[in-house]
Structures are given as structure tokens and as C-alpha cells.
Give the backbone structure.
Amino acid sequence: MKREIIITSDGSTSIQIPEWNEQYHSKNGSINETYHVFINSGLKVVSSDKVSILEIGFGTGLNCFITYLESKRQIDYVGVEAYPVIAEEIEKMNFIAVLNAEKESTVFKKMHDVSWEKKHQISDSFWLTKRKQFFEDIKDEDAFHLIYFDAFGARVQPELWTEEIFAKMFNALKENGILVTYSAKGSVRRVMQAVGFDVERLPGPPGKREMLRGIKK
């Protein structure tokens, strides 16, 4: 499908799929969404000194890069993506400039240059594994403190927001592990509850009234 580069409300770029009228990040700000949903409501809530993270939808690598920028702890990051973004699209992303992170530009490049299906040391405290994998094929168990659930919305890919998928997420988390997602749909909340999550509604990022956070009790 055709993909186009767009500028979101906070000045940062994203990729849009015109056929679906869907984009990789919120039109109300790619960077704003990452900080609100995944960093402030997810990463900063995890208390472990060593944090293992699973990202559902590695995409442009923005969530991964901001996690690197914001964490002073040891991070073991696994990004799952069935359809990787191509190098030409990554080169058009302006995240480095908007984040004023020029000193870390080589890290962002390295995150995209390293090979798939292998664990790589990005820095002294950050390890990255990129897995080219369909979400339904995830079989991890008791492995992660935190899941960034950043799949395309249920409107265009409802098969990614089912009990089957969220049961896999529940199994992949450690006890007291956390899943955060930008979605606030009632159907998603009910599916999460059905597989065992203790779900809470939180204030959403710009443009959204609410988001969801689930805890594996």
C-alpha cells in the first residue's frame, strides 16, 4: 500500500497510509503521543532497575528512541514488526531535530541499521532485538515488565485487537507487568479484562480523551 510522509501537530513527522486513512502516530503529535502514552504512563511507572520492554509495532523506531533518551536504567528492548519501514522513509523522519537530539543521531541510525532477529547492544545500558514477526506468532512467556501496544487501530486491523492477541500479551508479561496503549475503545477494554488484565482508563494524549493501561496481577 502507498505510504506518505506527513507532519503532525507537534511538528514531528509520521507515515500515513491514505487507503486506510491511518497513520503510524497520532496526527495530534507523534512525539507528544509517545511521551504521554508510552513513557509517562508506562516506562516511568515500572520500578525495576532493569526493564524488559516488548513493543507491538516497531514502525519508525520513535518509541524505542525516546525510551533510550528518557531511561537511565538498563533496558532490554524487543520490537516486533511484520512490515518494516524502509530506509528512505526513516531518512525523512525529523525526530532528531524536533527532539533536539543531534548528539544521539548515531544511536537512532544504529537502531535501524542493526540486523533483525539478533540482540544488539546499542549503548552501555540499552539492548535492542528487532523481530520481523506477525503479532499472532508471539509466544513469549513471563518475559517482559512492560508492553507498548502500538498496533494500527481496530478500525483498520480489528484482528490485532482480539482476545487471542491480548492473551498472548498477558502471557508475555511478568507478574505485575504493565501494558499501555493509546486505544480507549470499550471493546478493547473488555477484551483486556477477559484475558485477565486489571484495566484502568487514563487521560489520553492530545486529541484523545482517554487511553488504557492494563496490569497483570
User: Anything to note?
Assistant: The chain has one domain: 30-216. The mean pLDDT is 97.
